[in-house]
Structure formats: structure tokens, C-alpha cells
Amino acid sequence: MTAGLWPKIQVNGRLESAEMEWLHTNGAGAYAMSTVAMHHTRRYHGILVAALSPPVDRHVIVSHVEAEVHVDNRAYRLAVQQSPHAAPTPGYRFLEFFEQSPIPRWTYRIGKNRLVIVLALVRGRNAAVLGYSWKGTEPASLTLRPLLPLRPMHLLTREHGAMVQRIRLRSNQVEIRPVAALPPVVFRHEGVFIGSPDWYRRFEYAEDKLRRVPCEEDLWTPGSFEIPLTRERTAYLTIGVDRVPEGDPRDLVAEAAQTFMDADPGFERPLAVRELSVAAEQFCADSCDAASIIAGYPWLTATSRDELLALPGLYLVRGKVTAAKRVLATLVDAMKDGLLPRRIRGRVGAEPAPSADATLLLFEATREIARVVGLDDPFLWETLYPALAKIFARVREPRREVLWLDDDGLVVSGDDDVAYPWLDAGTGATLGATRRGLTVEHQAFFSKGLETLSGLAAYAGDRELSEAAGAARVAAKAAFRRRFWCDETRYPYDCLRRSEGEEIADRAIRPNALVALDVDAELFEHWQAAAILERVRERLLTSRGVRSLDPEEPGYRGEYEGSFEERRLAHHQGLAWTRLLGAYARASLRVTPDDFDLEEDLRVRIERARTGGPVLGQVCQFSDGEAPHHPGGCPAEATSVAELLRTLVWDLGL
User: Which of 55, 56, 61, 59 is nearest to 28 (CA)?
Assistant: First the structure.
């Protein structure tokens, strides 16, 4: 792979050189993703994965657009498909190199000629543009066959008899609606459409097979497009959900490319900052009405907790303050009864459950944006301040559900989705239940949030609210210091919960205390902060992230392997989370400021952590807790990118 901001991979017909994945997004939740060879290895791969309720409700509309080039009475099939018990079809042998500069581009060698294919998603629209440029002297033609699963992204399609071949033909346009429950799919082309509906069977997805989940799919096609190729001229195929976008396809491609070019902060910045800034843009879904952040590609969605965690690094660090306000406005608009929902609601499905994590994290996001925009910004007072006041009022109510106060003034979390806001929810019933109650990181979010609210109320002249929040913070800090420190481990308890009238203290060394130290250092004496960092360095810190559990604890799992359920449970039993390097860096720099050796160590760790994942230019969710720390989890994850970028720019000043 060629070094530099825009990756270029020399393939020269070798499949092993083309196994890296690429990602391209449209700023409204839709994406395209596959391997360099266009050899789909996940059910989530596709040319157009549309967000039908932008930025959520994602469906794989177009999986492949198979291309076959006809030159001098010979056909060159460029597709790479995998079927069970068979080698992949050999289209990769014609692939010379792949570039993402800044949008995906493939160069195929066809005899003495070359075909360049470019893919661009239309900004803010569920639409894709494919451009085909013929770099040859011999006359040629192109056959394009779209393969459509037309399904929610987590599911798979099998052959069935319900596909409807009803076609509307207009000048250079073909409209189909094979599934009545989905919008029509419209193609704009520069050739001839030949209707030939059929099923292509048993596509196998290798990564899904490794994850021990269903991995075979059948794909349907309405027919093919026959397009003449002319030297040095680009022929375009535009695909849209519901309708194709207006405008010259060249302009649509240029707009998509310019978005990512503009994300580059410039040559004067370190390469790591430039790469992470471009990577950050992929998760920003603010080109739609419900501006949001996608938690990760390909399978994570817009979850409130991850949006709030990622917002400083993705938006504020890059100076995108107006867009950050739109994301926060979307979240506040979704607040119900003083609580934020776990996720953005799509067009179908039940009302999202409330999230204790996200509700408390809104205080953190408010504090960060206030630091950037200043205390006189209208958005702070019209949107965020009233929301924080509602949360505080809700927490102080006597009802005991989701979030409430105990007799000492500590915040109790009764949410099934609680715990590990810096990690991942959905940990399974057993582990999830053990962390309901008084969790160490929630005390920090609440205590620091009270300080934020008290300060804002004082600035606004609301003396009653300021004093109430200030008194609640004093009580919470005193109770925390009295109840959470464990002298035996020289580390805070991870969680306190009541069972049959007794308080049970979890003494396991996990990174949640590190998060608490990062958020509200005033909860700890200086020697306690130093002891926490010492334990983290001894037990949890790795070269690529921070482990979710001390290796000496029972149940430690340092490798991401086994069945799907085993991998899921391993998330919080020892895997090294990339994003936690941000909390480690900030806490360390606060305890030991102006330490050049520390700063250099942090820089090296972040440089290492941002590389080695399966997706070009992106950062994966976590790595194995044990060397050599193989990457795992979501292959492109928002908070990992956000925290590394935030640390480099804000904390290390690069």
C-alpha cells in the first residue's frame, strides 16, 4: 500500500493484496462498503446501503453491479463472487490497483487497455453514481447487471416468488419496485436496458462464516444494461431509491469527493491528524433533517450514548460547531420525560427505551460545547440548559426507574442498558445485571454534570437551581469518597448494588474508574488518582488500547474468538478498547502535566492504535487483550476515531 493521506493499493491480480475493506458514506446514514476486490465478505457489504429514514433504517438495496467488458470478441468478467466449496470467481485477476482518493476508484487492465471505475454516493441522498472510463484504443462495450437483496442490513435474502418484475421505462431511465414494502429503485443509464429477471444463488460471506452466523444469500436481478464505451469518455450509471438525483453525474461525483477533500486540515498538520480528520467525516450524518452520528460501520446505528461520546472529537475538534449543535438538537428533541432514548427511532419499530448513559452524558457534551462557543451562545440557553434542568428534576423525583438518587445523593442506574458507556451496551443478562446500581463512572458523570448545571444556573441568574445543583454535588462527592474507595485494591469499586438488603461491592479492576477519573478528578485525592493510573498501567494498558478487565480476574477473556455469543460476552471480559486511550491520556496528563516522556508515549500509542484495522483509513473498535492484539469488533468505529483525534489535537496539541 502506498503511504500518504489517500490510500492506494497495488493489486496486480493478487487476491491476497485486495482483502482490505473500504468505506464510503453519504452524510445521511447511507454507505457503500466492500473489499478492495469487490469481494463481499459480510452481509453488510454493498454498493448502496440506503438509510430509508435518514440516518437510520438501513437496507441493502444494491449489493453488486457486476461488470463485464467486451473487447475484440472477448468478454472480461470483473466480478468476484464466493460460493460454498468453490474458489472466488477470478475477476480480481484484472484489477491493477485501487485508490480511495478520496472516493473509491478501481483500475482494471483489460488486455492492452484499462477501465477505471469510480463510485460516489450522492451527499444527503440514497443514491449512488458509478462512472466507467475507458482508457483504450480498441472499441468496447460494457454489460452491467445489478444484483439486489432489498432487505434490512442485518438480514439475508433467500430466493422467493414474491419479487415483482414491473418496470417503468422513461428516456434513459428504468424504474422497478420488486418489493411493495420498499420504495422503488430507479436507474439512469447511457445505454440499453434488457429485462431478464432472475435469481443468482448461494453467495457466501466469508467474514460472517468466521463469526459463525448465517452466511449465504441469494440475490435478484431485474436484467442488465448494455453501454458502449468510448475512449477517454466516462459513462455513468446512477442508482437512486425512490428517484434518481437531478444534476450532471460528474457534478455529483465531484461534490462527494470535495466533501472528503475539505475534511483534510492541510499539509501543515501531522499525517495522523489528517487521516483521522478524514476518517471522522465518514460518521457525520448531518446532511439530513435528523442530524446524527453513526456509531460504527457497517452494523452499528445512531445510538445516543455513542453520539455524545464521539461529538467532541468528530465535530468540535474539527471546528464544525454548527453541525455539532444540530446533532445535539436532534438528541434533545428526542428527550422524553427528562431522559434521552438509546437510539434514534426509525420509520418502524417500538419506541426506543431510555438510556441512563446518554442522559448523563448530555451534561458532558454541554460542558464541552460551552467551552468552545462561550457562555453567551443562544443555543446553550435555548436548547441545552433547559434539557439539563429537566434531567436534574427527573433524577430528584422519588420514582425509582432508570435514574434516581439514593439516600446519600449518589445516582442509581436501573437501566438494563447501563454500564460501560465507554465500551458497549448489550452485554448479556448476567453481566448487565451485575452493573446495575451505583456504577463508578455514572457518579462522575452526575457529579461533574451538577457542577456544569450549577455554573450555568448561576450565570443565568437562577439562584435556586444553582444552589440546589451545587448542594447535590457536595453530597454526591462526599458520599462517593466515603463509599467507593477500596483500600485492598487501591482502586475504586466498580459497582455497588444491593441484594437481599446487603450492599455488594464489585472489586474487579475495570477501566470505568479511569473514565471517572478523566471526567471528575475532584472525586479523588491526588494519591488516589496516581494509584488508579498505576493499576491501569499494570493491569489494563496495552499497546493498542485499555483492557476491559484485569487479566487476573476470573472470567478474563483476552481473545476475540469463538461463537457469536462468546465473542459478544468477551467485549467486557478483557478486550483492549481503542477509545479508552483518550480517557487514559487525559487522566495521565492531568496527574503528571508537562511530562515530555509521557506525551511521547501517548503519541506513539495513538499512532499504533489507529493502524492495523481491516478498513482503509479507519480505526476498529477494539483489539485482543493479549499480544499481538489482533483487531476485532466493529471495523470502523466512531468513538475510537473521535477519541484518538481529540487526544492528538486537544490534549497533545498536534
Answer: 55
